[in-house]
Amino acid sequence: DAGITQSPRHKVTETGTPVTLRCHQTENHRYMYWYRQDPGHGLRLIHYSYGVKDTDKGEVSDGYSVSRSKTEDFLLTLESATSSQTSVYFCAIRGQGGSYEQYFGPGTRLTVT
Amino acid sequence: DQQVKQNSPSLSVQEGRISILNCDYTNSMFDYFLWYKKYPAEGPTFLISISSIKDKNEDGRFTVFLNKSAKHLSLHIVPSQPGDSAVYFCAASVYSTGNQFYFGTGTSLTVIP
Known about the structure:
By secondary structure, chain A is an all-beta fold.
């Protein structure tokens, strides 16, 4: 158990509303990631962070922003949700030192109506 | 453009037999590869990884083979068990940067008792 929690676990929201998803880790890992999983696309990286206030874009970052003001929290914000952002969102952390594998949270299922 | 491809969306295998899951990649810079297993309503969990300096890595019933010239890797599960029924994702990265991981679309394995 890598001590990763995501909140909320499920959310239904309307088009045009802002949404923030939270990822919380208890292991003090430097690297944190946000992915979305969609049928036919697998897991796609949205944004990642390599330290407090250090973030960068992934391959599907349009429409998303992130913030990391504390080591343990990585927030993903949809400024104005669209139906195309209906997805399952996973947060992940990367292991320390030479460890390279990622550990994933349980996911957040977001539906934009 | 999908840099990591899993061309078989699904695979069915009898319990006790070998399961072979395949993955192809297009980016020759990738030098670190990972396999993840995912059950429904859970986050992916790390299974096994391989560096490009090796062509095989084994962990219990799981073996990953890497063919760099063909840009192909495979995951062998022997013997297959019903609990192995899940979606399997392969992922690739450039180890020196290590910030971005590219995932395939997944293969759903069903092990028939």
